[in-house]
Specification:
CATH architecture: Up-down Bundle
Radius of gyration: 16 Å
CATH superfamily: dinb family like domain
Helix content: 55-70%
Strand content: under 5%
CATH class: Mainly Alpha
CATH topology: Four Helix Bundle (Hemerythrin (Met), subunit A)
Number of helices: 7
Order of helices and strands: HHHHHEEHH
Low-confidence stretches: none
Length: 165
């Protein structure tokens, strides 16, 4: 397994584990506002996944889904797990293609910037993965505030030990 496979695998697995650990919470707990980016736990999960979905559209250079289209997708935890798995698989496919073709520094156009701006595939893939980790730390904090202290630590070595023994 190379570094890219480790980062992609850890990213999706860690977010998935936190979603699974949140299943014992009520809707009111999932939607309780916290003083963290003015978000709720559910909104933070949705944000991670929607950002992945949007960046996937940009990386694949296809029309970007509108916010209203993404908001219409399932936002319950089971639906978010399905969306996460789909977005994670799409990100893995494009990332491995970029790696295989050594296109890390090749450019695509971020049409959401005004004006549109060229960005590297490598920088964007790294951004998506690190963006998720940033918000997983917020999720862990919110879980602790809700009394769930026995959650994953979320580091790559713990993931590797858990998944690959």
């Amino acid at each position: 397994m190379d570094l890219l496979d480790r980062l992609l695998g850890h990213d999706i697995w860690s977010t998935r584990q936190l979603l699974l650990q949140s299943k014992s919470l009520t809707d009111s707990q999932l939607d309780k506002p916290f003083d963290v980016d003015s978000r709720t736990l559910r909104a933070c999960f949705v944000h991670i996944i929607e950002v992945m979905e949007i960046w996937n559209d940009l990386l694949y250079e296809r029309p970007v889904r509108r916010s209203s289209e993404l908001k219409a997708k399932p936002q319950n935890l089971d639906g978010l797990i399905i969306r996460l798995d789909q977005a994670g698989e799409e990100l893995a496919v494009i990332s491995r293609k970029v790696a295989r073709e050594d296109r890390w520094d090749d450019l695509f156009t971020d049409v959401l910037d005004n004006p549109p701006k060229a960005k590297t595939f490598g920088g964007t893939i790294a951004h998506v993965i690190t963006h998720s980790m940033h918000h997983r730390a917020q999720i862990m904090y919110m879980l602790e505030q809700l009394g769930i202290r026995d959650h994953i630590e979320g580091d790559v070595l713990s993931w590797e030990q858990t998944v690959h023994g």
